[in-house]
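Exercise 7. Given the components listed, write out the predicted structure of the assembled complex. Treat all entries as one system.
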Amino acid sequence: MSQAAMKKVFERPEALQATETHYCPGCGHSIAHRLVAEAIDELGMRESTIGVPPVGCAVLAYNYFNFDMVEAPHGRALAVATGIKRVHPKKLVLTYQGDGDLAAIGTAETIHAANRGEKITTIFINNAIYGMTGGQMAPTTTLGQAATTAPGGRKADRDGNPIDISRMLAVCERTVYIERCALTTVKDIKKAGKAIKKAFQAQLDGLGFTLVELLSPCPTNWKVSPQKAFDWVNEEMVKTYPLGVIKDTTGY
Amino acid sequence: MPSKRILMRGSNVVGEAAVRAGCRYYFGYPITPQNELPEYMSSRLLEVGGTFIQAESEVSAINMVLGASAAGGRAMTSSSSPGIALKQEGISYMAGTELPCVVVNMMRGGPGLGNIAPSAADYFQATRGGGNGDYRTPVLAPAGCQELAELTFTAFDLADKYRTPVLLLGDGLMGQVMEPVVFPDPIPLEDLDRPDCFLTGCQGRPPRKLFSMYLGQQGELFRHIWHLMEKYETITANEIRYDTYKTDDAEIVVVAYGTASRIARAAIDKLREQGLKVGMFRPITLWPYPMKELRAVAEKADKVAVFELCAGQMVEDVMLAVGERADIFFHGVPGGIIPTPAEVEAFLESVANGDGKVGRRVEL
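Answer.
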């Protein structure tokens, strides 16, 4: 086949920088980054996007995405994004946050931004553990799951139950679209990509607050192989966090 | 054109001045004694198409300011002492990220919840950097409503010029009291000379990344901090502000700022009538502190008398500035008590005759 007749079938999204990431083998972040970048490219919004990464494993995400970004203190991404969106109401504004950032130290910022119906999209990476700091118990750590600060695994009486922030946010009147997906099988990853694009579209249409929760493997801190980590998401984690649409009032 | 003379409450003065200075984004959380300011902003910003959000916490409010500032808006928050303590996280991040904003503190008594009466007990918090890390924030201390108006403009200009948070340090009395004010001309938004560093979407340019984290092993943070320090040296060289009152022939120089300086001024006038040669040095920038300027005044006097509405904080800067060039005396009134000019007169008489009845001599 001649050079001219060759068709490019796979390439790096423009919204992703051409750089190596620091993520561990088998980590879900790289997949999630790609899905976010693809959705932004498909909507043609790269030059009109402003992103806010979290504190946590994705703290360096501003080095990986190819659009304007500003760092937020731990948990404050949705407060920072609120300020940005009020200055630039027509831009696509997103936060990319882990479970510790969004559902522990930033719970207040999360609930109130959602409740105000800020036209922002949150990409919520739930890996049920504190990754960056080395495997401490997260608000989303499941019952019995091992963590360096939960001797013998998480116990409800001692540690409380895992928090389902996505369902909590669904009761806020002005959240319009919340879906939980997994970053494991090809089918699930495709579904996640569609969910992210739909959330961005709902934001651009000015409907309200949108969030996509992504169940994400963390082989390093779960102390299992990447394959076992993927299996654990599909077989165990989904029991605490069932996949699917949690809320959708978009009318799409 | 400048406004007519208007009788206005201090907190509202800051709000009106901020809007005239081009501030269109205000985020705050209610706390006494400065609630009039967010109340004023909630309706005034509506009139000019700005944004007011009553945040869920002080922490959220300062981080909304961070976001609005990163996006290129002139942004402000205000609070009182315990609320300012909560904002320190965001102030430190904004100093590190080099983002401009104005933070207003109408100080009340502390520590902890303290009380809701006027105080000047946040001098250390304001001038020493209440948050983590190697940074400084310019601190402006007005002494009344007219200066509140003017220094609010100055605060926004300094914030933009040096890409730094700027603190406007008033107190509960100044926020509540009504005085006549003439406001400067409003600045048309299109005339604002803003640095071209903000997030607007990367159309036609490489993406901008704003952050305070420098993890690189090659001394990245080291270099960033020396860059910040260079900026702070420039601020110190160019932005010191102070005022003097009857210091030319003064044998005793009072050092006081804010509300304390108003009380001291009345006492000075009274004592001058009685022939006592007393004057006042009033720092307006608390950081950078007018060290050399105070030193020059103190060298011509015999005694320096520091008067503060707290248990003694600025006195440490006076000690640094004056050293052994003059005898230093201190009288502080903490806990939200506002002394009368008569009490300051008694202090200064004690300083003059050395009887030690009011205040104390400061040992270096």
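Discussion: The interface with chain A takes residues 25, 27, 51, 53, 55-57, 59-61, 63-73, 75, 89-90, 93, 97, 199-204, 207-213, 215 of chain B (CB under 8 Å). The mean pLDDT of chain B is 96.
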